[in-house]
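Cross-check.
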Amino acid sequence: MLSASVYGLCAATSAACALGLFRLFWRRGRWASRLALWTSLSFAGFAVSNALVAADLILHPSLPLGPARAATACAAAATLLFALIWEVE
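Predicted model, tokenized:
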């Protein structure tokens, strides 16, 4: 039961980071801080990945969600890596 709360808190924290970064991007202007947009997209991907971990291990252990978890985590990490490389001045 403790693991379910940890997985839920990880997903909620990643979603909160994504929301906060997106609000920062929206307030400062659309072109002022593109790094905040890319980072918010990557944290949204991490939130989806954490939610899939909870769904895979807690809710539906019989469903094979491992490839979907890995794909979303890799896509989120690739988005963050792209943002950090692209926005270097």
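The mean pLDDT is 88. The radius of gyration is 15 Å. Passed to J.P. for a second look.
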